[in-house]
Amino acid sequence: MKMFDVRRRRAPLLCVAAMLALAACGEKPQGPPPAPEVSVVKIAPAAVSIADELPGRVVAFRVAEIRPQVSGIVQRRLFEQGSEVRAGQPLFQIDPSPFRADAGSAAASVRRAEATLARAKVQEDRLAPLVKSDAISGQAYDDAVAARRQAAADLAQTRADLERRRVDLGFATIRSPISGRIDQAVLTEGALANAGDANPLATVQQIDRVYVDVRQPATRLDALRDAARAGAADQGAPVEIVSGTGRVYPVKGRLLFSGISVDPGTGEVIARVEVPNGDRMLLPGMFVRARLPRLALPSAIMVPLQAVAHGGSGDTTVKIVDAQNKVQDRKVVLGDEKDGQVIVHEGLKPGDRVLVEGQDRVQSGAVVKPMPWRRAAAR
After folding, report:
1. Residues 102 and 165: beta-carbon distance below 8 Å
2. pLDDT (tens digit per residue) in 214-247
């Protein structure tokens, strides 16, 4: 009877064990987890240029101070203030009456000297045969020759004086030496213009072309010279001009090699950029920003900034995905940054796949599933 009870008690346990064994036989063995997806970019060298955006000031291409060369009363102002004037255009008219009278007096002196010379020549010609026949002394003939030469010298002097008087008469009309924009006049009609005045009557500035003077550290002198020589057909390296509000002007200047100098007071390099200014958008005295070229590489290797990791010891590394899709750490030497990317001088080669997104999910040696990185996905 006891044996029967023991068997009855063991039966449920055997059934449970059998059910567990059957369930265990029906499960499939679990494999390794799938490889994580990461974003990578394949290195492809490309040309890149780096520019420094520095403040500069607009300077007129040419500046002419309008000054009187003769003294007199200003009769008329012959231009509109702030207008464009042409080279040779009359600007002021000084009363020409005194200069016209002086020129007339000088002309009369010329005619008198011409008459004196003519008489001296006649006298010399008359005495020439007489001295040959000993009818007169040689001294008398020599005196006639000297008188003729003196009359010729007096005529030359009076002609030079007449020319000077005519020049003064021409100076009574003050003309612009260059084409450009003229500012406000200092004197008005009826004022006395003095040839010795320190202040000009007006100023003309040529601004169809302008200069932009930019200051930089003297350590960049060699780089500026290289950039100035880098232009096509000796036109200088192109330079973008940016307004104070960040608007890029639709014209490009060129860096002048001859315009690079060093300020002895500050030791800074002054780089001069010539900019076409046909629509007069740039005015002298304006402060703008110039993007000066600093570096030009024909085949640079660049990676996105988020792909770079900076270690505590100062090392800079990126993660690459090798041919077996394994992650490896690679030390790199970086250069300048541009548009969210950084130049890699050492550590990478064309064809390397650099891990851009997903570095925090993988470690060196892990197998990953690389996917092409898209810039839009970085937002």
Report:
1. yes
2. 988 877 777 777 766 665 444 567 889 999 888 8
Please, are residues 255 and 271 in contact by the beta-carbon 8 Å criterion?
yes
Each residue of 161-176: pLDDT tens digit? 999 999 999 999 999 9
Give just the sign of the alpha carbon dihedral 183, 184, 185, 186. negative
pTM score of the predicted model: 0.67
Whether pLDDT at 93 is above 60: yes
Write the CB contacts of 283 (distance below 8 Å, at least 6 apart in sequence).
58, 207
Which CA distances in Å does 102 have to 67, 149, 156, 175? 22, 26, 17, 21
Q: Which residues of 230-256 are buried (b: 16+ CB within 10 A; e: fewer)?
A: ebeeeebbbbbbbeeeeeebeeebbbb
Q: Which residue is it, tokens 């100062």? A: 314
Taking Cα atoms as reference points, which of 220, 237, 256 lies closest to residue 296? 237
> Does pLDDT of 118 surpass 70?
yes
pLDDT over 80 at 190, yes or no:
yes
* pLDDT number for residue 364: 86
Strands 333-338 and 341-346: antiparallel
Name the E strands within 322-364. 327-331, 333-338, 341-346, 353-357
Q: What percent of the chain has pLDDT over 70?
A: 88
> Token digits for 66?
């309008």
Instruction: Please state, in angstroms and rounded to a whole number, the distance separating the CA atoms of residues 127 and 156.
Output: 24
Angle at the Cα of 101 from the Cα atoms of 100 and 107, rounded to 5 degrees: 90
CA-CA distance, 237 to 10, in Å (whole number)?
97
- Which single residue is written with the structure tokens 């080669």? 349
* 219 burial level (CB within 10 Å; 0-12, 13-18, 19+): exposed
Q: If 0-12 CB within 10 Å is exposed, 13-18 middle and 19+ buried, where does residue 50 land?
A: middle
Q: Looking at residue 228, what is its pLDDT?
A: 66
The answer to whether 74 touches 68, Cβ cutoff 8 Å, is: no
Interaxial angle between packed helices 138-171 and 97-132, expressed in degrees from 0 to 180 and rounded to the nearest 10: 160
